[in-house]
Design goal:
Blueprint lengths: L1 E4 L5 E4 L16 H19 L13 H15 L5 H23 L7 H17 L8 H10 L9 E10 L6 H13 L18 E6 H8 L1 H9 L5 E6 L3 E11 L6 H30 L7 H8 L3
Helix pairs in contact: 4-9, 5-9, 7-8
Length: about 300
Amino acid sequence: MRTDTSPDGLPSETDSRGTPPDRIPRWLRDPLVVFVLLGIGVFALDGWLAGGETARPVIEIAPGEVERLRARWIAQWGEEPADSELQTLVDEAVDEEILYREAQRLGLDRDDAIVRRRLAQKLTFILEDAGAAGPPSQAEVEEYYAQHAERYRRPGRTTFDHVFLSRDSRTDPVGDAAALLDEVRAGAGSDLQRLGDPFMLARTYADRSDREIAGLFGSVFADAVAELPAGGWHGPVESTYGVHLVRVKGRTPSRAPALAEVRDRVLADLREDRRRDRSVAAYQELRAAYEVRLPATASDTESTRE
């Protein structure tokens, strides 16, 4: 820096190259601007040294993936795909991967309830399968069956006839049923199809459980039939349809089956219970690693789960 004399006789400062500072734009003297310009220059130089091309992400379809696509096609269509069909499957897989990566880049997987639920579901499946033991032993199956015997108990079954009297077409269906009961007990009506009113369902049911009878006629009817003795007409018995006379023709009592009869079901239930226990234990271990903060009302509810 040196001092010169201006045309008006006043001294003026110049830089080492003789350029007055007032002629350098103020923004070029800002250190931040200088830093940005240097960064742009370095980036441009790197691109020039690399041949002017930026490396692109790579999508590689491995041979194993191609075989998986081929197997899926065979499972769906029952035949080998043609070369053009297999190429279409590969192209679709590439398209899907590109869209998936771009969706992730844009953050579309965040704040999406469906994506969150699906990811949680997938992790749940992993937790359920983690640490899976071998098949249960015979002793373990027998112990499980003994502990849950009521679950496999065969229900009692009833075979019965009934005569229907409609509430819609009669002013006193209960009184009519009582009068008809006296008649059938006296042997006045042997043709079951001619007794009472027309009925949309069957008049005879064979080997029906209490639950099945309740599903057909309602729980009040099923409970009443369960208490009737076998061998004669009884009533009136009310149902969801109207009023009935009922004759129980036979019953099969409830019984506990031998393990051999239900072994496949017992084994499946045992494996399912173990899978669920593994999932719960693994989740509790994960949850212990987090500090969960909840509102007061939610905290009260959460305390009941622990």
